[in-house]
Design goal:
The structure is a single chain. By secondary structure, the chain is α+β, with helices and mostly antiparallel strands. It has two domains: 6-145, Cytidine Deaminase, domain 2 (3-Layer(aba) Sandwich); 154-343, no CATH class. The protein has 15 helices and five strands. The chain has helices at residues 6-18, 50-62, 81-94, 133-140, 149-153, 161-176, 179-186, 196-208, 219-229, 232-242, 256-262, 277-291, 299-312, 315-328, 333-343; strands at 25-32, 35-43, 68-74, 97-105, 108-114. The protein has a five-stranded mixed sheet, sandwiched between helices. α8 packs across α9 (219-229), α13 runs parallel beside α15 and α14 (315-328) runs antiparallel to α15 (333-343). The longest helix has 16 residues, at 161-176. It comes from Flexivirga aerilata. This is DUF4192 domain-containing protein.
Length: 357
């Protein structure tokens, strides 16, 4: 991963990391020995809730080795003073320095507190995006921040209602013909037996076929893939493939033909970068799959979205996906488990060198 040089680079890069431009919020950037550990964001709370909100925001930070923290206050000005003071007190109690307090608004920033002595004390433009290698890498991969958090949440809305109606009608037809029973057999403990080629083709085309957008796949392919992913064993096997450092793929393996087609986990990284293009590509295809389903039928795919984005460190999308799952199915135990872990700031990995959510 490219290095960020200075606070100006950090301010320019944050929307690309979060996926949206923050507003009326505080973002914490925590590092250890100069390496990024966690980025956490929270809306600026009322003054009377500042202490409780600081505890909540710092939960992921307190799970990790951290020696420096930068706070970036978006659009809030003095309204965030008590919140920042509560953050500073809690960090000081732990022996961690809040080295910078940055105010950002309308693509400009200034430092209200600065330990490096090199930050501007009046409004100035951040580093030019074209000069920040980390941003250039994101742009080359087609990553661009949306205007705000609501726009990011909109990426999980249904966008192809005609496709959703057709997929659900095809699923109903398969059920009436007894075809879903064979799909359940494919999802059994022993792996697929009948029709495995069709099942493998359907899931692989939805997940990794970059040659065709998900919304333009044949309805039959989308219906088979959706019927399969509704089966818990299949959902769990795909989820373990997406985030193997948290879920042991050996306990719920993909069937061999699907494993051969999908290849290694998209969150298996090279030594020099966190995640490659495959993780981001699959994350985009999962979102598009959600957009092709009725909200009540998108729950298993939303769980895949949550799991992959948690493994990638994109906490905002993780939380949004889990909120939608729990709204549609309040009793979903896996979503409850994921939500509790995310709220506690737990890492989705057993390895020390992985990003937190």
């Amino acid at each position: 991963m490219s290095t960020l040089h200075g606070v100006g680079d950090v301010v320019a890069y944050l929307p690309y990391e979060l996926g949206f431009t923050p507003h009326d919020s505080v973002v914490l950037i925590a590092t250890h020995h100069g390496r990024l550990q966690v980025i956490a964001r929270l809306d600026v709370p009322p003054d009377e809730h500042a202490t409780v909100a600081a505890v909540h925001l710092l939960q992921p930070v307190e799970q990790l080795p951290v020696d420096d923290v930068i706070a970036v206050v978006y659009d809030a000005g003095s309204a965030a003073d008590r919140f920042v003071a509560a953050i500073r007190r809690r960090l000081r109690h732990r022996g961690v320095v809040l080295s910078h307090v940055i105010h950002a608004r309308d693509n400009r920033w200034w430092a209200a507190a600065c330990s490096c002595g090199g930050c501007p004390r009046e409004w100035t433009a951040p580093s030019a995006e074209g000069d920040v290698d980390a941003i250039a890498e994101r742009v080359l991969r087609g990553v661009a921040p949306v205007a705000d958090r609501e726009a990011l949440a909109g990426e999980l809305d249904q966008r192809y209602p005609e496709v959703a109606v057709a997929v659900w009608a095809e699923l109903d037809r398969l059920e009436r013909l007894g075809r879903l029973e064979s799909l359940e057999q494919l999802a059994g403990e022993a792996g697929p037996r009948v029709g495995s080629e069709a099942a493998t083709d359907a899931l692989a085309r939805v997940l990794i076929d970059e040659g065709c957008p998900v919304s333009r796949l044949p309805v039959g392919v989308l219906a088979v893939a959706t019927g399969l992913i509704r089966q818990q064993p299949v959902r769990d096997a795909v989820l373990a493939w997406l985030m193997p450092d948290l879920l042991d793929p050996g306990l719920r393996p993909l069937w061999p033909s699907l494993q051969d087609r999908l290849g290694p986990s998209p969150t298996a990284r090279c030594p020099d970068e966190l995640f490659g293009d495959r993780a981001r590509t699959i994350a985009g295809r999962l979102k598009e799959w959600v957009q092709c389903l009725p909200p009540e039928g998108a729950v298993p795919v939303l769980l895949l979205v949550a799991g992959l984005h948690w493994a990638m460190g994109t906490g905002a999308v993780t939380v949004m996906a889990l909120e939608r799952v729990l709204r549609a199915d309040p009793d979903c135990q896996l979503a409850q488990l994921f939500d509790a872990a995310v709220q506690e700031g737990l890492r989705p990995s057993r390895r020390e060198d992985r990003r937190p959510a």
